[in-house]
Specification:
about 300 residues; mainly alpha; Cytochrome Bc1 Complex, Chain D, domain 2; two-stranded antiparallel ribbon; heme; Cytochrome_c-type_DH; metal-binding
Length: about 300
């Protein structure tokens, strides 16, 4: 019994403390999580040369256009008046400090799986950035979605709050990869198709989404050899997450290129390897083949918040 308990503790430490361990060299844990979660991409209106993290980026979806909010510590237009408990509840339960339900365009459906320690570290980092005064834009939604009262019902149907639970029959690298893919990097938010009500099609996890944000076709990343990435090796996937280069000589384009530049390339090699271990272990799902958006890899931009 003691040996089993020791093994469980060691497995938990291997998964839950990895960001802090990785950050010991030169990156604070909260900043490492911030990069891994890709917060800057959604909360910066780069097309309009917006200020980093001040929000305003439009996310066009089949349910309307959502505008990301200001997440700088500005007290009037950002999250400067939030408490740590407010922040944790927003990401864990999808509820604002005023008690309103968030639309699932905010990926709390994935962030709910973050550990308490990681939520606190991310909160501490966001409170360390420069406050920016910029009012949030209202979402542009059809009339029947403007009332947030319906979100309570949606959450009852499609949302289960709670931190990631370790799979004790899996090795630490698999658990670490599952935690990164499901919770931190929230890959399923783009790569899993949704039903008519916006809930995930659970039987098609990461099998691609023909109706992604900004009308993008998001490819299947399960190990299916015909329509997914089943012909890629684990090393291929690790290299792709670091450089954006595919095994056939192309580069990731559009949103994925941004994610690689700002997020996955910033991870440790062990974390990229853990992601590959997890994704290669998934069941193959054959779907319609959705081609990746490809283009010449742009030069890496200096991050404005550095």
């Amino acid at each position: 019994m003691l040996a089993q308990r020791h093994a469980a503790v060691m497995l938990w430490l291997a998964v839950a403390t990895a960001p802090a361990m990785a950050a010991n060299a030169d990156t604070p844990p909260g900043e490492y999580l911030f990069r891994a979660a890709g917060c800057a991409g959604c909360h910066t209106d780069a097309d309009s040369k917006g200020t980093p993290l001040a929000g305003g980026r439009a996310l066009s979806t089949p349910f309307g256009t959502f505008y990301s909010p200001n997440i700088t510590p500005d007290p009037d237009t950002g999250i400067g008046r939030w408490s740590e408990a407010d922040f944790v509840r927003a990401l864990r339960e999808g509820i604002s400090p005023q008690g309103q339900h968030y639309y699932p365009a905010f990926p709390y459906t994935s962030y709910t799986q973050l550990t308490d320690a990681d939520l606190r570290a991310l909160w501490a980092y966001l409170h360390s950035v420069k406050p920016v005064r910029q009012a949030n834009k209202p979402h542009a939604l059809p009339w029947y979605l403007r009332s947030r009262a319906t979100l309570r019902i949606w959450k009852m149907m499609f949302f289960g709050p709670g931190a990631y639970e370790l799979q004790h029959d899996k090795p630490p690298a698999w658990n670490r990869g599952a935690y990164l893919v499901r919770a931190v990097a929230h890959c399923g938010e783009c790569h899993t198709p949704r039903n008519l009500l916006g809930g995930f099609r659970q039987s098609q996890q990461l099998a691609g989404n023909p109706h992604g944000v900004d009308d993008a076709k998001i490819p299947n990343i399960t190990p299916d050899r015909k329509t997914g990435i089943g012909t890629w090796t684990a090393n291929d996937l690790v290299y792709y997450l670091e450089t954006g280069a595919t095994p056939d000589g192309d580069f990731a384009g559009d949103a994925m290129a941004e994610i690689i530049d700002n997020s996955t390339s910033q991870l440790t090699g062990d974390d990229r390897r853990a992601i590959a271990v997890y994704i290669k272990s998934l069941p193959a799902v054959e779907t319609e083949r959705l081609e990746r958006a490809r283009k010449e890899k742009p030069p890496k931009k200096k991050e404005a918040w550095e």
